[in-house]
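Progress report, Aim 2. The chain analyzed during this reporting quarter is listed below.
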Amino acid sequence: MALTTNIKIRIMKYVKPKLHDRIARFLNIPVRIPSLKKSGHDLCTRVDGHFLHVRSKRTKLVLSPEALGTAFLLPTVATSRRLVGDSCDPVWLENTQRILDHVNEWWEWGSIRPSFAASNPGQPSRGIGLAFSLGVDSFYSCFFADPPPDLLILAAGFDVPVERKDILTPMCNSLATVAEVSGKDWTMIETNLRRHRLFRRLSWEASHGAAVAFLGHLLQEHIGSLLISSSYDQEHLGPWGSHPDLDPCWSSSRLSIRSMGHEVSRSEKIRRLVNHPVARPLMKDYLRVCWENPSSLGNCGYCHKCVLLRMTLQWHAPDLKLRTLPEDIPLVQAIEALPLITNNLSLNFRRELVGHLDRPIDRALQKLIRRSEESIQQAGD
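Predicted structure tokens for the chain:
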């Protein structure tokens, strides 16, 4: 119960109703989804008075009511407004009630059902897509999903802004190499979704799963299934934007979405990857986990995610040095310099490492965990 409460408080704090939202709610002005389906490589539409752009040089996209509904359902409900449109896929529309039941139980946003007529169901394509960020979870899904993905999908504009070509270009090159070596196709989709005024009303912690599902709907002419890599394992799940109970609910008759990897801990994912003959050298050259201080080379080496990766590698592969992971700061000092961890879900990643590291590193880690636990406890009092 404490886990759920801590996450609920942190995420609800980042629902950001503005004057515009309060006026729209008072006047009962809904968020209207355009009914016209668009297809092409460079698409634009307007939602709630602001433009949404999607672009892919490599792959044709489809901007459908289901794609837009997936992107904007949660921000709309979180600001107590209704999502409306002419018609949409009947499976997607039925699933929205399950989505609302989950988020209302987690975050108490209410349950304002969208208003659409049901259109005719569609037929799914044959391909399997994987949202691929070059991180640990998506690397694991790439090599251990069964059946395996055919298409690796990188989003520009989620963790890395679309204008950061200095970072996105080497990421795209890394993606192409991983796809070629593993025998898959790849694409990159650029979008300003995360900067859209309505979408920004909700924290990324709560909205990222829907954003990834949005990518799958854009690719409905190429894939019939989308894999979303789970951030947390089955034993440590909590309210979160991507969740094995929530992710499938974004499905439609044309696209089946499922969560991948929640049956395995993050530490075990890394252990399996570093012992995989193809995955290990690719991780050495291309693994990226850093979103706080990303660079053209990869990771910063000193943020929470980078330090967690360094600790886990010391346990499972102390001889493996990643070209993307600087180690200029000694690991003990890097741990001691970290700010407190603010929720129990993230702390679980660190707890599973206790007792498996060199003694000075283990002591520094345990101090960080204790200080963070005390801070979380005080915040909950």
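Residues 14-109+116-284 form one domain. The mean pLDDT is 93. These observations will guide the mutagenesis work planned for the next reporting period.
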